[in-house]
Design goal:
The chain has 12 helices and 14 strands. It has helices at 35-47, 77-90, 104-109, 111-124, 140-145, 152-166, 192-207, 237-259, 328-333, 338-348, 354-360, 365-368, and strands spanning 4-8, 10-11, 31-32, 52-56, 96-99, 101-102, 129-136, 177-185, 214-219, 265-274, 278-281, 289-292, 301-309, 313-319. The strands form 4 sheets. It has a 5-stranded mixed beta barrel. Strands 6-7-8-9 form a 4-stranded parallel β-sheet. Strands 1-4-5 form a 3-stranded parallel β-sheet, with helices on one face. By secondary structure, it is α/β, with parallel strands linked by helices.
């Protein structure tokens, strides 16, 4: 039952020029599925027990059923409203409805339509959603040489627009809708300055107080028939790894602290694997990895309070935590506890209730919000 079903909305790219590495042009001009067709698929899946959905398999959801005009194609907010409303009507009890790709150039060129679309998505979706932006590079030379979608300033404004409506926290503890950024390395015209420019762009986003849910840094995959097919992609491995590590440490960690601050409660984390530490995730398109610092039953959903952050994951403790039974590891990880207070808890338990706990454990009030007795 815990399967995210991918809903294909269209194939093909509406751009006149295509990214050098992309295979989407192989499909030709955009071929859109109709709303009724997609809704029938959702209804059939839902009737078979499916509860988790992602609107994916398209280069830019904001251009679904785009309107052709004298100035070129433009977004149709009404079509996306119809799509989301139809999906919700066909699967009223769904647990996840997320999206995937969005072109930041579309959002920059059509801010009014894009704002309406973003608000529509938030009205019908489930929180923790990510609009994955294919930025690929912040280096102008690389952008020109590979016909990439958007300039850095355009991407920045698109990030700002999505944040303006999507940064609020949803019922599952995650922000409603945030941008993600994809970077590709090994493209034409890449140089040592490309790493610097990419890092500086991310630092600009961080310093501006904006939120990014995910920063994906990868090496280009070259396919026959693409613009990259005749180019021998080369990446300086050591320099690439240093740059990637710098992004993870300097950008990802403080960004994750901003996206899910300590004390945030994430709902319905599914425990998946464990060996001393138990790992789980919320179901979704780009779920955040959660580490519980002890053994915990697998295959269960549990609410977790965020206690600390890595570069691409967080540590959390199941809540409400029964401190009369919990291990030293879990008790000490609760906000405001630490090892000394946790040792007091172990010595003085059992407790008859929250008031008893607070009166008998010195300085324990911050943790009281996260325990159950």
């Amino acid at each position: 039952p815990y399967v995210v079903c991918e809903l294909e909305t269209y194939r093909g790219c509406p751009r006149d020029a295509h990214c050098s590495f992309c295979t989407e042009p192989f499909y030709g001009a955009p071929d859109y599925r109709s709303v009724p067709d997609i809704v029938r698929e959702v209804a059939a899946l839902y009737d078979s027990g499916a509860l988790y959905f992602r609107i994916g398999r398209q280069p830019d959801l904001f251009m679904y059923q785009a309107i052709d005009g004298s100035g070129g194609a433009r977004p149709d907010p009404a079509a996306i409203e119809s799509l989301y409303r139809g999906i919700r009507g066909a699967a009223p009890g769904l647990r996840v409805l997320h999206m995937d790709n969005a072109n930041p150039a579309t959002i920059y060129r059509f801010p009014e339509e894009s704002l309406v679309i973003a608000k529509t998505i938030i009205r019908y979706h489930t929180p923790g959603d990510v609009a994955a932006f294919g930025m690929e590079s912040a280096d102008p030379a690389v952008i020109r040489a590979n016909a990439l979608k958007a300039e850095p300033d355009e991407v920045f404004e698109s990030i700002r627009l999505i944040n303006s409506v999507g940064a609020g926290r949803g019922a599952n503890g995650m922000p409603e809708l945030l941008p993600g950024l994809n970077f590709v390395h090994g493209l034409r015209a890449e140089s040592g300055s490309t790493f610097k420019l990419n890092y500086e762009f991310l630092k600009r986003v961080l310093d501006s107080g904006l939120l990014l849910r995910r920063i994906n840094i990868r090496q280009v995959m070259v396919f026959p028939g693409t613009g990259m097919a005749s180019y021998a992609a080369h990446i300086k491995s050591k320099e690439f790894q240093r740059y990637k590590e710098k992004v993870r440490n300097d950008i990802d960690v403080p960004m994750l602290r901003r996206v899910v601050p300590a004390g945030t409660i994430l709902r319905d984390v599914m425990t998946e694997v464990g060996n001393g530490v138990t790992y789980g995730r919320q179901l979704g398109s780009y779920p955040l990895l959660v580490g519980i610092p002890d053994r915990f039953p697998l295959g269960r959903t549990v609410d977790v309070v965020v206690t600390s952050h890595g570069s691409r994951s967080i540590t959390g403790v199941p809540v409400p935590l029964n401190v009369n039974e919990a291990s030293m590891k879990l008790i000490s990880a609760l906000p405001g506890m630490g090892k000394k207070r946790a040792a007091q808890v172990i010595r003085k338990r059992p407790f008859t209730g929250i008031d008893d706990f607070k009166s008998r454990v010195d300085g324990s009030s911050p943790a009281a919000d996260y325990i159950g007795l």
